[in-house]
Design brief:
Length: 76
Amino acid sequence: MESVILQSPLALILYGTALFLNLFDRYYKMTRGIMTLIATAVCVAATAYALVMGASMFECAVVLLCFLLLNMGVRE
């Protein structure tokens, strides 16, 4: 079984953008969480795109759980 997310360049770009925005917000705390909201919207959009392209629910759940674990960190 091949991974739809790894085969789709647009999905990888969208997930990479969400990761970058999330890490940017964690490093520079001046955005007050706005970048986290934008990163979450981009991640949800990438997941919707992956589902439309035929990704399984398990494949999407793994990516979303990784994103959730990244967001569960304690803010100072």
